[in-house]
Write a structure and sequence with these properties.
The protein is mostly beta strands and about 140 residues long. About 10% of the residues lie in helices and about 45% in strands.
Length: about 140
Protein backbone atom coordinates (compact mmCIF):
# COMPACT_ATOMS: atom_id res chain seq x y z
CA UNK A 1 0.00 0.00 0.00
CA UNK A 2 2.82 2.39 0.87
CA UNK A 3 4.55 1.77 -2.48
CA UNK A 4 1.25 2.37 -4.25
CA UNK A 5 0.81 5.72 -2.50
CA UNK A 6 4.37 6.77 -3.34
CA UNK A 7 3.80 5.78 -6.99
CA UNK A 8 0.52 7.66 -7.03
CA UNK A 9 2.19 10.75 -5.61
CA UNK A 10 4.87 10.62 -8.32
CA UNK A 11 2.28 10.28 -11.09
CA UNK A 12 0.20 13.11 -9.68
CA UNK A 13 3.25 15.36 -9.45
CA UNK A 14 3.90 14.81 -13.15
CA UNK A 15 0.34 15.67 -14.27
CA UNK A 16 -0.65 18.38 -11.80
CA UNK A 17 0.92 20.43 -9.07
CA UNK A 18 -0.63 19.85 -5.66
CA UNK A 19 0.40 22.22 -2.92
CA UNK A 20 -0.77 21.39 0.58
CA UNK A 21 -1.16 24.39 2.83
CA UNK A 22 0.27 24.48 6.32
CA UNK A 23 -2.25 23.62 8.97
CA UNK A 24 -3.23 26.25 11.49
CA UNK A 25 -1.39 25.49 14.72
CA UNK A 26 -4.58 26.10 16.69
CA UNK A 27 -6.46 23.37 14.79
CA UNK A 28 -6.81 19.74 15.81
CA UNK A 29 -3.95 17.27 15.43
CA UNK A 30 -5.49 15.72 12.30
CA UNK A 31 -3.01 15.57 9.40
CA UNK A 32 -3.34 18.11 6.60
CA UNK A 33 -4.69 16.31 3.54
CA UNK A 34 -3.08 16.38 0.11
CA UNK A 35 -5.28 17.56 -2.77
CA UNK A 36 -4.49 16.29 -6.25
CA UNK A 37 -6.20 16.61 -9.61
CA UNK A 38 -7.40 13.96 -12.03
CA UNK A 39 -7.53 15.95 -15.30
CA UNK A 40 -6.17 13.75 -18.06
CA UNK A 41 -5.35 10.26 -19.19
CA UNK A 42 -1.67 10.76 -18.22
CA UNK A 43 -0.81 10.85 -21.93
CA UNK A 44 0.00 14.57 -21.96
CA UNK A 45 -0.45 17.90 -20.27
CA UNK A 46 -3.92 18.56 -18.84
CA UNK A 47 -5.98 20.20 -21.57
CA UNK A 48 -9.54 20.47 -22.80
CA UNK A 49 -11.44 22.03 -25.67
CA UNK A 50 -13.85 24.82 -24.72
CA UNK A 51 -17.08 23.73 -23.08
CA UNK A 52 -18.10 21.69 -20.06
CA UNK A 53 -15.35 19.72 -18.32
CA UNK A 54 -15.36 17.86 -15.00
CA UNK A 55 -12.49 18.64 -12.65
CA UNK A 56 -11.88 15.78 -10.22
CA UNK A 57 -10.10 16.50 -6.95
CA UNK A 58 -8.71 13.52 -5.05
CA UNK A 59 -8.23 13.91 -1.29
CA UNK A 60 -5.47 11.87 0.35
CA UNK A 61 -5.19 10.02 2.63
CA UNK A 62 -8.22 7.98 1.66
CA UNK A 63 -11.13 8.26 4.05
CA UNK A 64 -10.51 11.93 4.85
CA UNK A 65 -13.78 13.66 5.68
CA UNK A 66 -14.64 17.26 5.03
CA UNK A 67 -15.43 19.49 2.08
CA UNK A 68 -13.71 20.86 -1.03
CA UNK A 69 -14.42 24.09 -2.91
CA UNK A 70 -13.07 24.29 -6.46
CA UNK A 71 -12.34 27.57 -8.23
CA UNK A 72 -11.39 28.05 -11.90
CA UNK A 73 -9.53 31.35 -12.26
CA UNK A 74 -9.98 32.76 -15.76
CA UNK A 75 -7.03 33.72 -17.97
CA UNK A 76 -5.65 37.24 -17.52
CA UNK A 77 -7.38 39.91 -19.62
CA UNK A 78 -10.15 37.50 -20.69
CA UNK A 79 -12.93 39.61 -19.20
CA UNK A 80 -14.57 36.42 -17.92
CA UNK A 81 -15.37 36.03 -14.22
CA UNK A 82 -13.87 33.20 -12.20
CA UNK A 83 -15.96 30.04 -11.92
CA UNK A 84 -16.71 28.65 -8.44
CA UNK A 85 -18.10 25.36 -7.19
CA UNK A 86 -19.21 25.87 -3.61
CA UNK A 87 -17.99 23.52 -0.87
CA UNK A 88 -19.02 19.93 -1.63
CA UNK A 89 -18.75 16.94 0.67
CA UNK A 90 -15.93 14.51 -0.07
CA UNK A 91 -17.33 11.24 -1.40
CA UNK A 92 -15.02 8.20 -1.75
CA UNK A 93 -11.98 10.49 -1.35
CA UNK A 94 -13.06 12.61 -4.33
CA UNK A 95 -15.01 15.74 -5.26
CA UNK A 96 -16.13 16.39 -8.84
CA UNK A 97 -17.06 19.79 -10.21
CA UNK A 98 -18.23 20.60 -13.73
CA UNK A 99 -17.06 23.88 -15.26
CA UNK A 100 -18.14 25.48 -18.54
CA UNK A 101 -14.96 27.01 -19.98
CA UNK A 102 -16.07 29.73 -22.40
CA UNK A 103 -12.71 31.24 -23.40
CA UNK A 104 -9.41 29.64 -24.40
CA UNK A 105 -6.23 30.09 -22.41
CA UNK A 106 -4.58 28.89 -19.23
CA UNK A 107 -7.09 28.55 -16.39
CA UNK A 108 -5.72 28.20 -12.86
CA UNK A 109 -7.65 25.55 -10.93
CA UNK A 110 -7.62 25.79 -7.13
CA UNK A 111 -9.06 23.24 -4.75
CA UNK A 112 -9.58 24.32 -1.14
CA UNK A 113 -10.10 21.76 1.64
CA UNK A 114 -12.08 22.56 4.78
CA UNK A 115 -12.96 20.12 7.56
CA UNK A 116 -15.95 22.37 8.40
CA UNK A 117 -16.82 25.18 5.96
CA UNK A 118 -19.19 26.85 8.44
CA UNK A 119 -16.40 28.16 10.70
CA UNK A 120 -14.49 31.39 9.97
CA UNK A 121 -11.40 30.86 7.76
CA UNK A 122 -12.21 27.18 7.20
CA UNK A 123 -9.58 26.34 4.54
CA UNK A 124 -6.68 24.23 5.84
CA UNK A 125 -5.20 22.89 2.56
CA UNK A 126 -4.99 24.13 -1.03
CA UNK A 127 -4.04 22.40 -4.27
CA UNK A 128 -3.36 24.31 -7.50
CA UNK A 129 -2.82 23.35 -11.12
CA UNK A 130 -3.15 24.92 -14.56
CA UNK A 131 -5.52 23.63 -17.22
CA UNK A 132 -5.04 24.66 -20.85
CA UNK A 133 -8.36 25.31 -22.60
CA UNK A 134 -8.30 25.32 -26.40
CA UNK A 135 -10.83 26.96 -28.68
Amino acid sequence: MRRWLVSLAMVVSMMAVATPALADSSSSSAPTPLLSFDLSDNGGAPSVSGGVFNVKVDVLPEGTGGYVRTVAISPNDSGVPNLVCRFRAINDSRVICGFNFTVPGNWTIKAQYAPDPTVPNPVTAVGTTVLRVGS
